[in-house]
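name: query_chain
kind: protein
chains: 1
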Amino acid sequence: MKVFKTIPDQNTLLRYLPVLLLSSFVLSGCASFSKDGGLNDVKSLTQRHIKQEVVWPKTAAEQQLAEARVQELLQKELDVESAVQIALLSNKGLQASLFELGISEAEVVQAGRLPNPKFSMLYARHNGDYKIEQALTFNIFSLLTMPKMLEIERLNFENTKQKTALDVLKLAYQTRLAYFNAVAANEQVTYSAQVLESAEASAEMARRMVKAGNWNQLELAREQGFYADAKQDALAAKQKQSAAHEALTRLLGVSVNQLAIQKRLPDLPKTITEPSQFQQEAVEQRLDLQAARLRVQALAKQLGLTKATSVINVLELGPARVLEGRRGDSYKKGVDISFELPLFDWGGAKVARAEATYMQGVNRAAYIASNAQSEIREAYSHYSTSYDIAKQYHDEIVPLRKKVLDEKLLRYNGMLISPFELFADARAQVASVKTYIEKLNEFWLADTELQMTRIGTLNSLEGKE
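structure:
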């Protein structure tokens, strides 16, 4: 609804308008673009957990520098740390996430900007009579809500920094997992080829002995079955290797033929991390929980603003003048006032929605907090158990298999056992090494997962939520 009144002394009603405008100019001056766009805060959050540098190339020159750094790293054999660095430099999904900082900061600056004044004009003419109305109005209500909106957007910007830091660490986490899987797949291909070679030699010898009449068809079928199984295993290992390499290259943002990763997984550490490092204070530092809390604060501010503006959210005021009559007549000066009449919508639905959104945020933050400690305990249990299993394979099972093979080799040299028994034990010894590789890989995956429980829930970091 728009109301126009001609008031002789308009200065009386507009007396406080300059004061409001001046205060708004001061407030808007506080909201400006930063030099780093929030990246330094993201770096400080991530560098508590990883050593790698986070780069946000915005220009072509900065992009070229990042690409040159990637090419430099690719010239050497990649360890897990350099693989993470390449991912942080060249993964386009991460670069897209970093631009969320720019979007959010722009919202902060926009919230601190004065709304443009509105000019309206009515022009009518009939038989030399004119009716001209001119008004320059300003949304006074926006001046009152600007501080609250600016505070909300600043909280949202801080929340965006937390989420962006989570995206960085999520990529680092996924890259570490993919790297260990790729290295383990390489080792499995090597040992599967050894088993296949042994099985092929055993099958060929069996064929010759049957042909010479020294063996029966049952023994031949058994050796041929071993060979067929070994061939299937070797093919499956190659397929798994291909899939693991492709998964890693997708995260690194490079082609698969540029990969040159380590030949072996890192050895087991001498000792494992003590559980005292994963106490309650570590939970309180989780980025997903901090982001949820900031989100709740912003929703609380938004709820208060919604309640305050539920009935009237537009109040425009400004000087106006009207001419009615001949073109040379004097203008009548006055004030133009415009606002909404809450006849049909009293804002109840807006408030209810804001309240529900706020309570949703509160419960989501409580859910994250209540599950955090349990997730850490579960991850530590997996980590310690994986270590014990891998250590047993390393210290007992693999050495025992090797000892058995060595003893069988002595007996074979003394012509006390057949070559087929030797082949069978050789395959068993290689199979124990392959299983150790699997268990060692599981340990390093569990170690990575444990470290990431300090940052956020594993499901969200794996993209399952």
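note: Residues 1-14 have pLDDT under 50 and may be disordered.
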